[in-house]
């Protein structure tokens, strides 16, 4: 072959593959149109499909009623029922087609039931693939793997897989020495999907083992789980790419340019990722800690790679970027221990004995649930106000996750009750206004308009 014809070879191969595939399809359609057993099999399959559709409608209603009568089912059982409902029609068709195929194999020539057997096989394989790919958690990747396996299984059983492979191999992108065909891309997606599924199963098992280990702190558990996931998914990706024969060195320049662009565009994302690793290493906060950040008060539920989930007492869940937890001022109420001291202020009248007031206040605080007894409450005078003697009452709790406002309110109620029982008054500001006699006389001698002015 001369050098002049070399550049044309890929296009010639592509056209030949396309012509071969088109000829196979036309041969099959010609056999279907021609009267005979092949056409009869097609009609039988159409009738089975209609019957399967009707059985799907009837059995779906019966299945729903049966599930509603059951109680206490777990989520994975309900998910299986949902998947069965979606594919009831295909399952009915597979059962009936397989039954008809077995009967026709025994009563007539095997060639007269070939298409029915092929349809039954494809239906069974499709159902099996639909249930097997549920192991792939990512929805987009799961759909890609599902359709790829369905198409490959169909082409394989139709004996046209080689022709289609040649056709897909001819559709390629070539940049210098780098060549990427459509077949390589599809194969890579399927292989990576399978490897990602395997990596997810291994990481889930490993994460469960790490979380059961009580010798590892919660923050280190999160760091270890994230490290295992990144390692396994990274290995799965590179193994999938290498398994289909793609040379990664050809993408070095392109990946470098993309990396620079992503570095400028995703500065905040990278900052949050690095901040998350720093938080996990220095253990400044960990799952279960009670923190205050600005006006947000709650406890850390999860630590993610990009953000921390903080749940407040009113049920709101705040997703706080990790960078804010590093650069901002964070109050960790349970960093080194769970003990939290709370202060409340109150005042009593000057006529009340302050020694008695202090004693009653401490007694009231001790009688409130959640107030610690071994860290005894204390009460001190902090000043003499305009209308009252001012006090501060300090007490300790050990469960800040139970809330702070509610415990303060309970202590205030206890103070109110014990003060009322012992005739201790809580004064409010009072003012006296005195009118001098000379001012009244001078005001009465003025004209009405002037006095009003």
Comma- or semicolon-separated keywords:
453 residues; alpha+beta; three-stranded antiparallel beta sheet; 16 helices; 10 strands; elongated
Give a written overview of the molecule:
It is elongated and about 125 Å long. The longest helix is centred in the N-terminal third of the chain and has 32 residues, at 37-68. It has 16 helices and 10 strands. The protein has helices at residues 9-33, 37-68, 75-86, 88-107, 114-132, 139-157, 161-170, 182-212, 218-243, 252-265, 267-282, 322-327, 354-366, 405-421, 437-445, 448-452, and strands at 172-175, 178-181, 290-293, 296-303, 307-312, 317-321, 331-332, 340-348, 378-384, 389-397. The protein has a 5-stranded antiparallel beta sheet with strand order 6-5-4-3-7. A 3-stranded antiparallel beta sheet has the order 8-10-9, with helices on one face.
Describe, in short, the structure shown.
This protein is of the alpha+beta class. The protein has helices at 9-33, 37-68, 75-86, 88-107, 114-132, 139-157, 161-170, 182-212, 218-243, 252-265, 267-282, 322-327, 354-366, 405-421, 437-445, 448-452; strands at 172-175, 178-181, 290-293, 296-303, 307-312, 317-321, 331-332, 340-348, 378-384, 389-397. The protein starts with 8 loop residues before the first helix and ends with a helix.
């Amino acid at each position: 072959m001369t050098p002049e014809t070399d550049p044309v070879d890929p296009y010639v191969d592509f056209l030949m593959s396309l012509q071969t595939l088109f000829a196979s399809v036309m041969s099959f359609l010609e056999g279907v149109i021609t009267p005979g057993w092949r056409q009869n099999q097609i009609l039988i399959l159409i009738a089975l499909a209609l019957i399967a559709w009707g059985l799907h409608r009837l059995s779906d209603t019966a299945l729903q009623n049966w599930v509603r009568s059951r109680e206490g089912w777990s989520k994975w059982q309900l998910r299986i029922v949902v998947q069965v409902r979606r594919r009831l029609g295909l399952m009915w068709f597979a059962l009936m087609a397989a039954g008809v195929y077995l009967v026709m194999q025994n009563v007539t020539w095997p060639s007269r039931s070939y298409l029915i057997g092929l349809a039954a096989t494809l239906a069974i394989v499709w159902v099996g693939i639909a249930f097997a790919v549920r192991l792939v958690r990512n929805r987009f990747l799961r759909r890609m793997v599902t359709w790829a396996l369905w198409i490959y299984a169909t082409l394989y059983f139709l004996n046209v897989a080689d022709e289609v492979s040649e056709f897909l191999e001819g559709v390629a992108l070539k940049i210098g020495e780098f060549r990427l065909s459509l077949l390589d891309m599809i194969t890579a997606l399927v292989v990576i999907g399978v490897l990602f599924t395997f990596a997810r199963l291994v990481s889930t098992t490993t994460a469960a083992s790490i979380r059961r280990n009580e010798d590892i702190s919660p923050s280190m558990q999160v760091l270890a789980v994230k490290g295992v996931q990144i390692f396994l998914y990274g290995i799965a990706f590179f193994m999938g790419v290498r398994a289909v024969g793609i040379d990664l060195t050809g993408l070095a320049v392109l990946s470098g340019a993309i990396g620079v662009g992503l570095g400028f565009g995703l500065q905040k994302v990278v900052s949050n990722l690095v901040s998350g690793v720093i938080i996990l290493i220095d253990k400044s906060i960990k799952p279960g800690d009670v923190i205050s950040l600005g006006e947000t008060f709650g406890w850390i539920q999860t630590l993610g790679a990009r953000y921390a989930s903080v749940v407040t007492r009113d049920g709101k869940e705040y997703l706080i970027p990790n960078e804010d937890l590093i650069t901002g001022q964070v109050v960790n109420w349970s960093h080194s221990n769970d003990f939290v001291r709370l202060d409340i202020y109150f005042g009593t009248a000057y006529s009340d004995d302050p020694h008695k007031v202090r004693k009653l206040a401490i007694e009231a605080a001790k009688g409130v649930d959640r107030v610690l007894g071994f860290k005894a409450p204390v009460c001190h005078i902090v000043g003499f106000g305009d209308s009252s003697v001012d006090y501060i009452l300090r007490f300790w709790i050990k469960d800040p996750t139970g809330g702070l406002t509610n415990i303060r309110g309970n202590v205030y109620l206890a103070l109110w009750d014990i003060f009322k029982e012992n005739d201790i008054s809580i004064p409010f500001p009072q003012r006296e206004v005195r009118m001098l006699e000379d001012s009244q006389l001078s005001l009465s001698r003025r004209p009405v308009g002037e006095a009003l002015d």
